[in-house]
């Protein structure tokens, strides 16, 4: 067993974590203003925007992956532009994985942030505006510090979801060792060749990491609720 563990190539895990970190950072800066708008908006187009944001949750990964692949391919306008002007091929490399993962994980960042922002005390926001604070200052100096549980949940769930991706990343990135071969694809390949010992070890590592991630979220949120209850009393 120990010899088998020594033979494990941890490169897929490193690629998974690298991808998850980059995607989580990018999605935070995209999703926070979007979640703020959705939480404050009364526009009749709000349900349409919410549905578009949540669409990756209900779409089969094969459908989403196919259209992302079609959009980023060298034959498309976007793919051809990046290939011609930046010499970057957006499919079957790490850049394509980042784009695809941002689209696939978007609702997992937006929805917790939106819920947290909608639960804020409106009087606190109005007081900030009365004091002469701009919407930008109110967003980052008032709203953000007061939604820590929702913020942590959004960040960790997005990170964990990105680490566990399979269908979309397989279609967009393939399985290039050290570049696009993530942990979930490595497990799939071990299963295909019936190397169940390594598939078990990789899967157990993923289960442990996922459990610790969720445990951290629930522990932190539980502490925050107890602190809030103590303050209100």
User: Helicity range of the residues?
Assistant: over 70%
By DSSP, the count of extended strands is: 0
Low-confidence stretches: 227-233
Q: What is the residue-mean pLDDT, rounded to a whole number?
A: 86
* Main sheet: strands, sense, barrel: none
Which band does the percent of strand residues land in?
Answer: under 5%
Q: What class do helices, strands and sheet pairing give?
A: mainly alpha
Question: Rounded to an integer, what's the Rg over CA atoms?
Answer: 21 Å
The end-to-end span amounts to 54 Å
Shape: globular
Q: What do these coordinates show?
A:
- By secondary structure, this protein is an all-alpha fold.
- The protein is built from twelve helices and no strands.
- The longest helix has 37 residues, at 196-232.
- The radius of gyration is 21 Å and the shape is globular.
- The model is unreliable at 227-233 (pLDDT under 50).
